[in-house]
């Protein structure tokens, strides 16, 4: 994977946070990372933390399946509960326009906020829960009152009060020639194998939050698969071979 100038700056910043944790013996963290950034930082952290029992790196976005996460560097006495992350609960008026993820994100960026200051935006029927760094909480409570022409009501909520919407899933039952990544991605997202391989080579596919680079990578039961722009899926079951020597698989895809 060829690193861009922005990638190198990201990694240098993450290494600085690691060194601060080591030298000052306190919790430090990066800004929120997208999946590609997390993949880069996770590879760096595996090298930095190897052999250092006093510091560990955990990726945390407020809940277990968060897509946007902080790289949190923890001295051995600290816990994730100390991480300065909270929730802004957004409510809209009943009967008003139903806002989408794009509406909320666009209005936040219009305030001049960088995307790295906010985590996932979990849209609900009456609004959304926005995961943020504590340092922008007061700014949002004072200034974030509209998304387009829709008035918003805001409330600060502890991270433990996060409301995670129930996600709809579909079970995909298929057969694959092997557990090569391109085969499984093609089955999970209804693509041709050639299209799946192209997506992998372009850096759009992630396996267990790590960017995949080779179409012939082997995956296993339980792997989390993300195709940027299409969603995520889990390889739930790998069955026996069929008479045509293909593997039966069950994939849970998030709709």
Overall description:
With 255 residues, the protein is of the alpha+beta class. It folds into three domains: 5-80, Ribosomal Protein S8, Chain: A, domain 1 (2-Layer Sandwich), CATH 3.30.1370.160; 85-161, Alpha-Beta Plaits (2-Layer Sandwich); 169-254, Roll (Structural Genomics Hypothetical 15.5 Kd Protein In mrcA-pckA Intergenic Region, Chain A), CATH 3.10.290.10. The protein has helices spanning 5-24, 35-48, 101-110, 137-143, 181-188, 193-201, and strands at residues 28-29, 55-60, 70-75, 85-92, 118-124, 127-133, 146-147, 150-157, 169-176, 205-207, 210-211, 224-227, 231-241, 247-254. The chain has a six-stranded antiparallel sheet. The protein has a five-stranded antiparallel sheet with strand order 5-6-4-8-7. Helix 5 (181-188) crosses helix 6. The relative contact order is 0.12. The mean pLDDT is 94.
Spans of at least 5 consecutive residues whose pLDDT stays below 50 are none
| Major sheet details | 6 strands, antiparallel
The CATH class designation of the largest domain is Alpha Beta
Classified in CATH, the superfamily of the largest domain is: RNA-binding S4 domain
| Total discrete domains | 3
Shape: globular
Helix count, DSSP H or I runs of 4 or more residues: 6
H/E element order: HEHEEEHEEHEEEHHEEEEE
- The oligomeric state of the chains shown is single chain
C-alpha Rg (nearest Å):
20 Å
**Structural class per helix/strand content?**
alpha+beta
Number of strands: 14
Question: What is the typical, i.e. mean, pLDDT?
Answer: 94
Q: What is CATH's topology name of the largest domain? A: Structural Genomics Hypothetical 15.5 Kd Protein In mrcA-pckA Intergenic Region, Chain A
Distance between the termini: 30 Å
């Amino acid at each position: 994977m060829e690193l861009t100038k922005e990638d190198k700056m990201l990694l240098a910043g993450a290494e600085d946070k690691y060194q601060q944790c080591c030298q000052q013996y306190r919790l430090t963290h990066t800004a929120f990372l997208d999946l590609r950034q997390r993949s880069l930082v996770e590879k760096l952290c595996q090298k930095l933390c190897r052999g250092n029992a006093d510091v560990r790196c955990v990726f945390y976005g407020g809940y277990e399946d968060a897509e946007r996460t902080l790289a949190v560097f923890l001295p051995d006495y600290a816990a994730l509960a100390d991480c300065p992350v909270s929730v802004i609960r957004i409510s809209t008026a009943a009967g008003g326009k139903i806002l989408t993820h794009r509406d909320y994100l666009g209005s936040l960026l219009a305030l001049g906020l960088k995307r790295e200051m906010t985590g996932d935006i979990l849209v609900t029927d009456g609004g959304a829960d926005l995961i943020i760094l504590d340092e922008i909480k007061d700014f949002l409570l004072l200034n974030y009152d509209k998304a387009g022409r829709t008035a918003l009501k805001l409330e600060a909520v502890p991270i433990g009060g996060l409301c995670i919407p129930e996600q709809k899933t579909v079970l995909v039952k298929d057969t694959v020639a092997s557990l090569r990544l391109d085969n499984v991605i093609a089955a999970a997202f209804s693509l041709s194998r050639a299209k799946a391989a192209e997506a992998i080579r372009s850096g759009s596919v992630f396996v267990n939050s790590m960017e995949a680079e080779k179409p012939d990578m082997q995956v296993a039961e339980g792997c989390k698969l993300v195709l940027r722009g299409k969603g995520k899926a889990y390889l739930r079951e790998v069955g026996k071979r069929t008479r045509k020597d293909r593997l039966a698989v069950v994939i849970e895809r998030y709709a």
